[in-house]
Design brief:
Elements (H helix, E strand, L loop, with lengths): L10 H28 L3 H13 L3 H10 L3 H10 L6 H20 L2 H27 L4 H5 L2 H75 L1
Amino acid sequence: MPGTESLSTMDPILWLIIFFVVLAFAVIAERLFYFHRVSINSGDFFRGLSALLRSGQYNEALHEARQLPGPMARVVEAVLTRPRLARSELREIALEAAELEVFRVDRNIRTLLVCATVMPLLGLLGTILGLVDFYEQPGIIDGGASMPQVAYALRHALVLSAVGISLAIPIYIFYMYLASRARKIINNIERAGLECVHIICDARLRSSESPLQRDTPSKKAD
């Protein structure tokens, strides 16, 4: 339609929006696959780990931790490699190992927030630029454009805003979902390390007290 050729200046904005869409869905696919791969039943893991540690089977517990995927098992493994250290030292090891895993869990998730924020702004920018270019054409301001031309220009310019907003909404929803799942995994990681420290120290305490408890009746008999 005559008078609308300048709207092609919006094409770079559209390609930018498409770029952010592809980037966002690549991040979503990668994070969903990662979370699925590292998910384990933490309840069963802790019950089995507690039973092994309380019976003094540290090597077996370490073997079980190494067989499982994911950050939780790696934090437990870091603690189990030094089971004879003091509680404070074990706690420090657990927290340091958890901090290293937090980066892997949170990786790229904030990229979705950037995409969901930038895409509507790009759409709005494309709309403004398209309208500015349209009205800068010779004769448009003087009434040289017909109503169909103006309507077509407005519709074509507003499409970019609609595209940017409509694509940003599901991306933001995925961001909220993945961020919530990441926080849950991070909490489980920190809990796993500290729980392992408590189990090891409690098992050591019971093993050191049991000989004293066996000796007590004999001393009273004497």
